[in-house]
Every structure is written in structure tokens, then in C-alpha cells.
Amino acid sequence: MLASDRTLRSDETEIVDEAIRSRRSVRAFLPTPVPHEMIVEILEVAARAPSGTNMQPWRVYVTTGATKQAITDAVMNSGIRAEKAKWDEYKYYPEQFFEPYYGRRRAVGFALYGHLGIGKRDVDQMRRQHDRNFVFFDAPVGMIFTIDRRLNQGSWIDYGMFLENIMIAARGRGLHTCPQAAFAPYHRQIRPVLGIPEEEILVCGMALGYEDATKPENDLRTERAALDEWVKFFPE
């Protein structure tokens, strides 16, 4: 039996489980650089994600320094407010929210703004907080993910598993992440910065770095629904 095929010991299981449990969207990072070799390790292990017929549909643009700043400038200088941005490549959310998803969405929004002391009518502060997406929440590494538009929904499923692998691999190295769909409507601004060809759809961005534990927004912990709300077990 190959070492990779053996059953994990209980302590190893706990390490894996803790990496999954501790993964969350961090919205404030330290400026501490992430070694290039560590980024390479994370991406290489993440690429072991399941992929139908091994197509490996992911494309990744890793940015730091001036290039990352150029993405920020392109978005922030576009004059396009987030609420006016067009999701013309793909739709992340439904046209009309409904329960239980609407309630869950509202709950996390209220919780985040509550941690930041932002009232529900303070639109300007809400906008400023949303714009923090476009500086990658001050993370030293900003990644942009794309997929060939000729691929179909199965490849998007594979892509989600790849993104999760990145986030879990990052946790195993003491790093945190924040996946950011907010970049997707700004593909026209980001394409020329990174030389992204038209046949690629911008899927999302992701901030990568070390958490700034002093920031209140990083105290947020989201809840997950109980299994009996979304699982049906059938007896033998």
C-alpha cells in the first residue's frame, strides 16, 4: 500500500479537520511577505483537486507589489460603484433571494458590520468596507483566477474544489485567505493589467497572507446550519 493510501492516524485526522474548520474569510492582513516558494507549494498541492478527465481548468495570476497595486488602481479608478457593476460574464447570486439563503446572507452582513461598528444606514462606510476587497484587504499576495469560457459547468465544479484546496493548504502553513468574487464584474479593467485573453472568464480573486488579529473584522465567525436542515439519511 502506498503511504498516501493508508488510513490517517487520529492525530493526522485532527490536523486535516482543524485546517478545514479554521478556514475563514479574513478581511485584514499584515504586510508580512509570503515567500514565493510557499506560494508555489500551495498551488502545486492545490492542483491535486479532482478534475473530470484530468482537464485541470484553472488559470491563476499571482500578483504582489506594483502589479497588485495596478489591479487596485484599475478597479478603484474605473468610476464604477460595486452596486452598479455588471455581472455580465456569469451570475454569482440569484436574481431574487429567497429563504433560507436570504436570511443567512443578511445575518453574515449584519454580523460583519456589527464587528466594525457600521450601522445599517451608514452607506458610505459600507461602501468603504466593500472597497477593501480591491486592495485585497492589504494582503501581500493577490490572486486572480480565470477559466476558459468554452468549458462547461462540470469544470466550474472542479474549479471550486481547486480553490478550496488553496485555502486549506494555506491554513496548513499558517496563512489565511479571502476568496473574492467582487473582482469578477471588473474583468474589463483587470484584463489589460494582467494580459488576460478574452477567451478566459475572470472567476474571482483571492487575498493570501498572514492575519492581522488586531482588527475587529477578523473576530467574525460564521455559523453553519445543522445537518438535519440539509441532510437526509436513509436506513439500510
How is this structure best described in words?
- It contains 7 helices and 4 strands; from the N terminus they run H-H-E-H-H-H-E-H-E-H-E.
- By secondary structure, it is of the alpha+beta class.
- It has a domain at 21-91 and 133-221: NADH Oxidase.
- A 4-stranded antiparallel β-sheet has the order 1-2-4-3.
- Helix 2 crosses helix 6 (153-171) and helix 3 (65-76) packs antiparallel against helix 7 (187-194).
- The chain is globular and about 55 Å long.
- 22% of the residues are buried.
- The model has no long low-confidence stretch (mean pLDDT 95).
Q: What attributes does this structure have?
A:
4-stranded antiparallel β-sheet, NADH Oxidase, globular, alpha+beta, single chain, 236 residues, 37% helix
Q: Care to give the gist of this entry?
A:
The protein is α+β, with helices and mostly antiparallel strands. The chain has helices at residues 10-21, 36-46, 65-76, 101-116, 123-131, 153-171, 187-194, and strands spanning 59-63, 141-148, 176-180, 200-209.
Q: Mind telling me the CATH class of the domain at 21-91 and 133-221?
A: Alpha Beta
State the major sheet.
Answer: 4 strands, antiparallel
Overall pLDDT: 95
Q: What is the spatial order of strands in the main beta sheet?
A: 1-2-4-3
Termini Cα gap = 31 Å
- Looking at the overall shape, the CATH architecture of the domain at 21-91 and 133-221 is 3-Layer(aba) Sandwich
**Number of extended strands:** 4
Q: Are there runs of 5+ residues with pLDDT below 50, and where?
A: none
Overall 3D geometry? Answer: globular
The Cα radius of gyration reads 19 Å
> Which range does the strand content fall in?
5-15%
As a percent range, the share of helical residues equals: 25-40%
Q: What is the CATH topology of the domain at 21-91 and 133-221?
A: NADH Oxidase
Structural class: alpha+beta
CATH superfamily heading of the domain at 21-91 and 133-221: NADH Oxidase
Number of helices: 7
The ordered H/E elements are HHEHHHEHEHE
